[in-house]
Amino acid sequence: MTQHDSRDRVASERLEQALAILKQRTATGAMPQAPTIAALCRLAQVSRNSVYRYHPDILAALRKHRARRGVFTDTRTCGGLPAQEEVRQLRGRLAKIAALVDHFYAAYREARTLLERRERELADLRRTLERRPSALPSSRASPQV
Questions:
Q1: What residues does each domain of the chain span?
Q2: What pLDDT, in 10s, does the model give residues 23-66?
Q3: Comparing C-alpha atoms, which of 85, 65, 60, 88 is closest to residue 75?
Q4: DSSP H helical segments within the chain, as ranges?
Q5: How far apart are CA 39 and CA 35, in angstroms?
Q6: Residue 115 confidence class, pLDDT cut points 50, 70, 90
Q7: For residues 50 and 62, what is the distance between their CA atoms, to the nearest angstrom?
Q8: Is the distance from CB of 17 to CB of 44 less than 8 angstroms?
Q9: What is the pTM of this model?
Q10: Is there a contact between 37 and 48 (Cβ–Cβ < 8 Å)?
Q11: Smallest Cα–Cα separation from 15: which of 42, 35, 34?
Q12: Closest of 96, 10, 76, 6 to residue 45, by C-alpha
């Protein structure tokens, strides 16, 4: 057995003890909310990463306990809204953003067309002015009367 295996075993034992304590606190009402991964890790003095990576059985047991209490960890909530409601709202926002993008793209194309026409008209005007003879200022002084 390597040192890593013995540390894993010790961490597993601490996590199991911490889970048992959290379950007991939840059952007696000492802990009104369902236990969380953070609470479990604090009690067992184990990092959350190691729980997710090396102890999926403890994680599954905690999720099972939370599900029995009516707390579903698979349904992510944001601001009290279930995930499906949040997705519906985000899709609505996405549709509005897509409409705005379409509107601004159409405005861009129209402005580009107008600018191209203006540039052509200015180029035509410059060519016309270059062709027209212009009067040269007289170098002679005008006769005095």
A1: 3-68, 80-127
A2: 888 888 777 677 888 888 998 998 888 888 888 898 888 888 88
A3: 85
A4: 3-28, 37-44, 48-54, 56-68, 83-131
A5: 6
A6: very high
A7: 15
A8: yes
A9: 0.46
A10: yes
A11: 42
A12: 10
